[in-house]
Amino acid sequence: MSSETLPAFIESSNVERKQSLSEEQEKSQKPRLGEGFEPISKRQMKKLIKQKQWEEQRELRKQKRKEKRKRKQLERQCQLESNSDGNDRKRIRRDVVHSTLRLIIDCSFDSLMVLKDIKKLHKQIQRCYAENRRALHPVQFYLTSHGGQLKKNMDENDKGWVNWKDIHIKPEHYSEFIKKEDLIYLTSDSPNVLKELDESKAYVIGGLVDHNHHKGLTYKQASDHGIDHAQLPLGNFVKMNSRKVLAINHVFEIILEYLETRDWQEAFFTILPQRKGAVPTDKACASSSHDKNSASVEGGLDSDSSDEENSRNELDSQYEEKQDKENSSESTVNSIPH
């Protein structure tokens, strides 16, 4: 190549290089200018569609929220109308009249109970607290001699007890802050029967779950401390299949019910569980006398059948005597060493 043609060749190559560089720059700038035309993935496409649908349905969602608010308003209004007879809980709470009667659960028997019974006592106390909070005439509720196993169990399983309202929880014995003449210990072993409740008094319930292992203990303690004692008039109104000893929460709830109704019989039959087999004493007496009369009438009419039954009994007794003799002879034979 001649020296004359060399500069022309270099210049043309430089021009071509500049053109290629400008083309590359244009290509690199195109995606930036036309971002909306870039290819996107399926996932991004789905997101865009969802976003678009969300924006389109915004008004529809607002309308649904309005309808829901209106529906709830109507439901509340209907509920208030249906509870206009006074059964609404809020209405009841407004009508609460606190009683001046003090009701004490004596927890000084902690060392006499195993952990299983302590847990039962805790549950019964919880029930008493809940019922007193719901009652129309709540009492002045005291929990005394609080400590030991019971406190430990409550700390572990019911930490909210420290926030309980309308209850006096004290580590001291009740005799340390209540006058002796104001105290009445409720115990089923007392010969004294309550006729009515004196709201100026403090009634004590023994906090003991012992399954009758320590019978008469609460009565003995009341007598030793020189405290008045009495039992609920259960026998005057109720005939039960089981023993007359009631759970702590049952005694508590019966007193709450009596303060509301001033009727012992209604209080007993409202609170006592069905397993106790409780029936009114007048009905129990009538049914027992009816059973006796019917038995005597049947005996007078069916003399033949009774004679037949007696003869059967004689035969059975003779057979039993014979079997006893045979068994004794067999045992004698078996006892002889071989």
TrEMBL record:
The active site is at 210 (proton acceptor). It is an enzyme of class 2 (transferase). Residues 61-73 have a biased composition (Basic residues). GO terms for biological process: tRNA N1-guanine methylation. InterPro entries: MT_TRM10-typ, MT_TRM10-typ_sf, TRM10/TRM10A, tRNA_m1G_MeTrfase_euk. Its EC number is 2.1.1.221. GO terms for cellular component: actin cytoskeleton; cytosol; nucleolus; nucleoplasm. It comes from the Eukaryota. Residues 1-87, 280-338 are annotated as: Disordered. Keywords: Methyltransferase, S-adenosyl-L-methionine, Transferase. One of its GO terms (molecular function) is tRNA binding. Residues 88-279 form the SAM-dependent MTase TRM10-type domain. Residues 14-35, 309-328 have a biased composition (Basic and acidic residues). It catalyses: guanosine(9) in tRNA + S-adenosyl-L-methionine = N(1)-methylguanosine(9) in tRNA + S-adenosyl-L-homocysteine + H(+). Residues 329-338 have a biased composition (Polar residues). S-adenosyl-L-methionine-dependent guanine N(1)-methyltransferase that catalyzes the formation of N(1)-methylguanine at position 9 (m1G9) in tRNAs. Probably not able to catalyze formation of N(1)-methyladenine at position 9 (m1A9) in tRNAs. Interacts with tRNA. This is tRNA methyltransferase 10 homolog A. It comes from Panthera leo. The gene is TRMT10A.
